[in-house]
Amino acid sequence: MNDRSERIRNTLVPFISVILGFLLGGLLMLVTGYNPIVGYQAMFRSAFQNSISIGEILVGAGPLIFTALGFSVANSAGFFNVGLSGQALCGWVVSIWVALSMPTTPKVIVVPLAIIAGALAGALAAAIPGLLRAYFGTSEVIVTIMMNYVLLYMANHIVNNVMSPEIISNKGVTKIVGANGLLREPWLTNLFGGSRVNMGFVLALVFLGLVWFLMKRTTLGFEIRSVGINPFASEYAGMSSKRTIVISMLISGLLAGLGGVVQGLGTFGNYFVQGSSISIGFDGMAVSLLGNGGSVGILLSALLFSVLKLGGQGMQFAGVPSELANSVIPLIIFFVGINYVVRVALTKISVNKKIVKKSEKLEITPLKQEGADLE
């Protein structure tokens, strides 16, 4: 019974967080003199106005699913991978570099090689904080935050000074990858009215299933979850917590790197110098937390975030400033962050209902007995 109640609470918390985020966002619009109903109507009308918009929702959701899965794996092992942005950036740069270096090679060779290279680049970037955490006890939060900056400037240096001039279009911008290296397929593009939708979303769906199977049906997944719950008990049971930490960080970085690959070979088709850490890393963390780390939750959360980002642009046509339009996502993240308060409230409601039911039973039982005595 307790397990069932806990599952219900785990399901309700994300939904309540989303509803509270929308309500508070609407209240902000109302206070500042804008009609929240008109604003939200414009948001959803813009997000679902045609097949192109729906395709763009899938485009935005693909990279977020990968970074959210990366965060979920690391979080299951008991630590926060805040370096998803840098690891995704590595996957983006390396995949574009590989694809542009083979302009005449068949697609069946280029695309798998670029995907594998980008994934390995993300895993390698995550290996550094993983090893430092496992063998030296350093804080993975601090190391991964610093690594984001290191990898950002390293990527910009590679584009400006290392890549061959033959694959550079302008200063700090690469050429567009040819059709032999992109994740886009004509039939998929035509299906969604010419949008940028690509096989990256399909790949993300595949990895949702693979990560679920890894974490729920394999020995390695069990070890990762065990180390996350109690590393000392895991060591006593014969598991190597250091090895598990490093492996989980490698998997996390690999998934983030794949998010960068989808961003590069699917969404943009090239790489250009970034002024700051790319948003899919931090948004992926929020998606994972909102989805409670589960595959279905991550999928729904990624789609929601993509809808909010795309629809937020449409709110501006209704006269709502972009600052207010973009406030809904942070508010949802805020309520996700204080999900403990939501859980406590749900628990109290559940307990109060049980108390009321018990008191009703106690009141009804004596009356039945008295009736029996009168007879």
Concise account of the structure shown:
The protein is mostly helical and 375 residues long. It contains 16 helices and two strands.
Helix fraction, binned, reads over 70%
- What is the overall number of helices? 16
Helix and strand run: HHHHHHEEHHHHHHHHHH
Q: Kindly give the count of domains.
A: 1
Major β-sheet annotation: 2 strands, antiparallel
Distance between the termini: 39 Å
| Relative strand content | under 5%
Give the strand line-up of the largest sheet. Answer: 1-2
| Known CATH architecture | Orthogonal Bundle
Average predicted local confidence, pLDDT = 88
Cα-atom radius of gyration: 24 Å
CATH class: Mainly Alpha
Low-confidence stretches: 370-375
Described by the principal axes of the CA atoms, the overall outline is: globular
Structural class by SSE content: mainly alpha
Strand elements, count: 2
Membrane topology: Multi-pass membrane protein
GO molecular function: transmembrane transporter activity
InterPro entries: ABC_transp_permease
Subcellular location: Cell membrane
If you had to describe this structure to a student in words, what would you say it looks like?
With 375 residues, this protein is mainly α. It has one domain: ABC transporter involved in vitamin B12 uptake, BtuC, CATH 1.10.3470. The chain contains 16 helices and two strands. Strands 1-2 form a two-stranded antiparallel ribbon. It is globular, with a radius of gyration of 24 Å. The protein starts with a helix and ends with a helix. It is found in: Cell membrane. InterPro entries: ABC_transp_permease. Its main location: membrane. Keywords: Cell membrane, Membrane, Transmembrane, Transmembrane helix.
